[in-house]
Amino acid sequence: MGLDQFVQPHGGDEPPAGKSTGAVEMAAESGQPDAGVNALVDEILATPQRFEFFQAVRVIDDATWRRMVAASSRDALLRRDDDGLVRLHSAITLGFPGGAIVAASRPADGGLEPVECEVACFGLVGPAGVLPRHYTTLIMERLRRFRDATLRDFLDVIENRSLWLLYRAWTKYRQVPLIERTRLRDSGTPWDDGASSPRDPVTASVACLTGLGTRGLPDRLRIDDELVFHYAGHYAHHPRSADALEQLLSDAFGMTIRVEQFVGRWLSLEPQDQTRLASPEEPEGRNARLGAGAIAGARVWNVQSVIEIIAGPLTLPEFLSLLPGARWLGQIGDAVRMYVGLALDIRVRPQLAAASVPGTYLAASREVDRSRPPARLGWTTWLVTTASTVDRSDAAFMVP
Predict the structure, then answer these.
(1) Do 25 and 102 fall within a single domain?
(2) Is-contact 52 100, C-beta < 8 A?
(3) Which of 125, 154, 196, 347 is a Cys-bridge partner for 136, taking CB atoms 3.0 to 4.6 Å apart?
(4) Do 231 and 346 have their domain in common?
(5) Residue 165 domain-assigned?
(6) Is 231 part of any domain?
(7) What 3-state DSSP class applies to 305?
């Protein structure tokens, strides 16, 4: 799961996609959301011996669910927890199996009926059957001599339920299948009323570690909650360090980020907090005890209330995405705020790479280049006559 679905850049080019090979990768790049899953199901149907039992059932089950959702087959979906979306029965053979699944097939008409899988690793009869071997021999003989599948079909009713419960027990105690199943099944159906579905147990536990487990707190940040969960180890750890924050932000936003601590700034004093000498109205003065509360002036220098996030060197599109009103400024602010709390103010200083510093010119002096961003005084304007030789980080912005 890539972080680009949590943090989306504001402007700029998309990163180049890596080359991929194989049917699944090519299908995933074809533009169809479920193409990769369907291609993997086709591979399972063609060569089931190559796949492990639980993983194969997991893929087929999810693919069948997606297909039924697309067809709005609500009645078929209601039986998913009872009978399952995959028909499982033992392979009727005494030969040595080539894999956990001997054969797999889908309905010939391409309908919504479940995919059938012949299993050799579990069951009542077959190579790994728990019943005496002569039951397998009896079924094989009746099928061969009389074309009678009564006993096999009767055992299939029991086996399908047992194997499906075995698969459900496997998913219950494994984090990834449990998360996938809960998210795929509890949302996104055509008859969904739009209400938020409960989180799976794993995500709910991680949310509690990060401080987002209380009702009313999720989905209130400008970043996806999944980003916070991804870095739950950092957010749940105390004490918190600037080094960990640098690693978190650099990895999440894909840029070099430094955290500057003890950044100084002037804090204005309210009139009632300023030092006043004794007067007829205030015989004892106000905050006038030397060495205890007296302050000369209407402001004080403070180095304990601000941290500065220095991002860069950046390309011009990345730099623009960190200006006020752009997406990344607020996202970085929320990610930092979740980490340091409300006691500190956050200032972001984007650093533009020297090679990306644009020249500034008046629009009337030459034809307007629509591909260039508009000049913003104090933000994206530099008086340079030649290519810049230094990175530019003149502007800094407080995160609201």
Answers:
(1) yes
(2) yes
(3) 125
(4) no
(5) yes
(6) yes
(7) coil
User: pLDDT higher for 158 or 34?
Assistant: 158
Closest by CA position to 330, among listed 1, 11, 7: 7
Q: 346-362 in b/e burial notation, b at 16+ Cβ within 10 A? A: bbbbbbbbeebbbeeee
Q: Which tokens belong to 370?
A: 């629509």
**Residue pair 63/38 in contact by the 8 Å Cβ criterion:** yes
Distance CA 62, CA 290 (A): 74
Residue 101: count of CB within 10 angstroms of its CB: 25
Percentages helix, strand, coil for the chain (3-state, rounded to 5) are 40, 10, 50
SS3 117: strand
Distance CA 101, CA 51 (A): 7
* 321-337: average pLDDT: 92
**Whether residue 219 sits in one domain with residue 167:** no
**Cα distance between residue 219 and residue 224, in whole Å:** 7
d(CA 91, CA 316): 62
Residues 24 and 85 in one domain: yes
Q: Give the pLDDT confidence score for residue 113 in this predicted structure.
A: 78
Strands 397-398 and 345-352: antiparallel
Range of the domain at 254: 242-277+289-398
326 and 226 within one domain: no
What's the predicted TM-score (pTM) here? 0.68
Q: In the prediction, which pLDDT does 364 show?
A: 60
Residue identified by tokens 């979306």 is 85
Structure-block tokens of residue 279: 């007067």
Residue with structure tokens 């909650």?
Answer: 225
What letter would DSSP give residue 392?
B
- pLDDT tier at 10 (50, 70, 90 boundaries)? very low
- Span 216-272, pLDDT tens digits: 888 899 998 989 999 999 999 988 999 999 999 999 999 999 999 999 999 999 988
> pLDDT by residue (tens digit) across 80-125?
656 678 999 999 999 888 899 999 998 776 667 789 999 999 999 9
Q: In the chain, how many domains are there?
A: 3
Tokens 């969904």: give the residue: 192
Give just the sign of the alpha carbon dihedral 326, 327, 331, 334: positive
**Three-class SS of 233-300:** HHHCCCCCCHHHHHHHHHHHHCCCEEEECCCCEEEECCHHHCCECCCCCCCCCECCCCCCCCCCCCEE
Compute the chain's Rg from CA coordinates. Answer: 32
Dihedral angle computed from the Cα positions of residues 45, 46, 47 and 52, in that order, rounded to the nearest 10 degrees: -20
